Every structure is written in C-alpha cells, then in structure tokens.
Amino acid sequence: MKRDRDPIRRWIEQEKHGRTQRREFRNGNIGYHDDVVTSYNWWPMARIIDHKKKVALYRMERYSVSTARHQSFVGTALLTEGFKTFHVARVTSGNSEYGGDLRISDHMANLEDYERRIGRRLESADRSRKYKPLEMAMAQAIITEMGDYIEYFGLDREEPDVKPLPSYHELRRDSLMR
Q1: Number of other CB atoms surrounding residue 8 within 10 Å
Q2: Where are the domains of the chain?
Q3: pTM for the full model?
C-alpha cells in the first residue's frame, strides 16, 4: 500500500523542489505527469491548479474499485497538505489525460455537475426525515464550493437560485417540535 502513496507525495511536493525533479513519475498503479495525478497512467484523478495558493481540482467520478481507492489516497493527501480542493467532473481539458488549461466547456460541465449534485442532495433532503439536516448541510457545502469555484476561475455565471438553507440546529429544533 505504501508503494502507491509515494507518487502522490512526490506529485504534491514537486513545486517545493522548484520542479527540478522529473515532471513524470510512476510507481505501481499511480503516477503523475506535470500537475495531473493518474490511476493506471490514464485515469486523471486530480490536478494541482496553483501550488503556491494550494488549489486543486479533484475528480468526483469513479471508474473502478481500485481507482476509487487511489482517489481516496489522493483526496486524503490533498486534505492533509491543506489544499483548497474543488470536487469536479473534469480535471483536464476535454477527455485528455494531461490536457492543458480548462476550456469554457470544461468549466460549464463542472458547473452542471455541481448543480446536479446540489439537486440530488435537496431531493434526498425532501424524502428524508432522519437525515434531512445532513443532506441540507451537504447541499449548502456544495453551493458554497460552487460559488468559490466560480469566483476562483472568474466565471461569469450566476450562482444557483437557491434560498439560503436553514442551519442544522434550526432543522433539528423544527424536527423535535413536531
């Protein structure tokens, strides 16, 4: 298991070394090429957008059980290193493994994915009694992240038209009063 984690650490730390080390590395089933870390050398899992500000894109889509495990390693490493991580559908341009800068179509796909995930959480909250506060909090977190994504990339798109969600304590109080 440790063998799979080494390339992740090297990928995250490459900027610290002034990029003097190789820009490509593979150890086991995880590797990286420039700022994109891949599973099995073809499935892009995450991409560092800005090393200095510690900003990264993390791919939400799963491919297989083993790739999901690799994604878990990457997500944990980004969290541990203090990266602001945007959970998106696309981390590279189009379907490219190591594509260049994201195109507007890639940003639109990511924003549509945010909206889809918000909708799913809100639908789940409507159906749920026990987990309604959790689902509402998760929807609010996705809305906040989407707003941060729009701001960071300077996209000209309105945030979703969703009323401010009640806090967990307000929902809990309301459910206890029934």
Answers
A1: 24
A2: 1-100, 103-178
A3: 0.75
